[in-house]
Amino acid sequence: MSDSVNPADIHKTMLDQQKSEQRRRLILNLVLLALLMVAPMVMYPVFLMKILCFALFAVAFNLLLGFTGLLSFGHAAFLASGAYTTGYLLTTFSGLSTELGIIAGTLVATLLGLGFALVAIRRQGIYFAMITLALSQLVFFFFVQSSFTGGEDGLHGIPRGQFLGLIDLNDNLNMYYFVLAVFLAGYLMVQRIVGSPYGQVLKAIKQNEPRAISLGYNVNRYKIIAFVISAGLAGLAGSMKTVVFQLASLNDAHWHMSGEVILMTLLGGTGTLLGPVVGAAFVVNLEYQLSQGPLSDWVDAILGAIFVLTVLMFQSGIVGQVQKFMKKNIG
To answer: Which residues sit opposite 162 in a β-bridge?
Structure first.
């Protein structure tokens, strides 16, 4: 006779696994925080801020693709809407504080994300992706034609101002730690969402949507909420990027930017928390290195080749492959 399985033992094993996962996540977060705190001592702060802005953008996108299974080709619209809103308000209203300008840009991107979601969420697969791309292009042409965006010239000379009227953000080191705090808040927010019961439903929808529907979940509502959160965080990334570089341009709204964030997420590892951060750091650094050398005209072609190789050979991305290796060899 086979031994009976004790439900209490199973429950204890599951709790032990959850505690172990929480400890590993805490250690990883502390290591990441320590590295980011000392990074400006050895690297140029503005370059690091660019990485953090794109890392937040990729983390936002990964909430949609990696944990919900929705591929959006229109996330550049949210990055640009946050950027232009913040840039316009800070240049037009001199008395407006920097933090309020950033909040306004984030809110506009969130509302735009709600509009996108209500139109596109009932479609799936390539149809969903094409609708988001079409809507994003409409936003792009709106920014091209609008006078407040500066058209093809963009917005220049956007003031950084002061944080809470106390901290001068014109100092690159102060600005870096402000961007770092915002990035960490967004990263931890996504981490909390993924680990919550709501996040578990999102994973269930990604794995088997018909089964989630049969269990009584309103999957469209869950997907709309995920889309809106993702859009808001993307807008926050755009607002921060505008303040850092004191510039908002059409590059942020172009479809190429949507493709770039897809590359960052896939390269780092979809469905992982740290993957988009690693992918963003890799892509931003690679673009910078290539633009300084004789291959500056081949940046897009090289990134495209990396994208193809990643899809064909490293479907789990950099972080995903490392996790698989560690599980196989360390246990």
So the answer is: 168
Query: Across-strand partners of 248?
Result: 155
Rounded CA gap, 140 and 84, in Å? 11
> Rounded to two decimals, what is the model's pTM?
0.88
pLDDT band at 23 (very low <50, low <70, confident <90, very high): confident
The residue-averaged pLDDT of 13-20 equals 63
Alpha helices in the chain (DSSP H): 7-38, 45-68, 76-92, 98-120, 125-145, 172-195, 197-207, 209-214, 219-245, 255-268, 275-291, 299-313, 317-329
Token pair, residue 37, equals 């705190």
For 29, the token pair is 């977060």
| Measured CA distances, 169 to 129, 161, 185, 240 (Å) | 38, 6, 19, 12
User: How many angstroms separate the CA atoms of 241 and 236, rounded?
Assistant: 9
Q: Which residue, among 138, 127, 40, 103, has the nearest Cα to 232 in the 3D structure?
A: 103
Pair 105, 83: CB distance under 8 Å: yes
The set of residues, in sequence order, having a beta carbon less than 8 Å from that of 133 and lying 6+ positions away, is: 73, 74, 255, 258
